[in-house]
Amino acid sequence: xxxxxxxxxxxxxxxxxxxxxxxxxxxxxxxxxxxxxxxxxxxxxxxxxxxxxxxxxxxxxxxxxxxxxxxxxxxxxxxxxxxxxxxxxxxxxxxxxxxxxxxxxxxxxxxxxxxxxxxxxxxxxxxxxxxxxxxxxxxxxxx
Length: 143
Hints:
CATH topology: Immunoglobulin-like
Helix content: under 10%
Low-confidence stretches: 1-23
Radius of gyration: 25 Å
Distance between the termini: 73 Å
Order of helices and strands: HEEEEEEEEE
Oligomer: single chain
Largest sheet: 5 strands, antiparallel
Number of domains: 1
Mean pLDDT: 86
C-alpha cells in the first residue's frame, strides 16, 4: 500500500519563505566609535578604551596598581560646544583596586558613565584616584 503525501501550494509558500528568511541577515549594526585611553601615575597605570555609545560612554581596560596602593578609574561625561560652553552629563567609576601584595597587580575595569542626551557625550575626562587625592586625568573628544 502506497502512502500519498499531498502538500498544498500555501504550505510550500510558507516553507520557502521561512527558508529564505533563515539565510538572510538583518542590516549590519554600526560599531560605536572608540578612543584609546591611557593614564599613568608613577608605576600605576590604566590602559583601555572609551566607547562612545548613544547615551553613555563605556570605559574598559586594565588598571595596574603598584604594591601597597589603592586606585580607581573614573570618567566624567559632558557635551562641549565650539564656543567653549558645555554641560556636565554624568560620572561613574570602577571599584577600588587595593593591592596588598609586594608586586604590581592588574585589575580588569569595565563601567559605563551616563550621558543621557541624544547622541550622548562628545567629551569625556578619564581619571585615576587614590583614597585621598585626584592623581591624574586626561580628556578626550568624541572622534
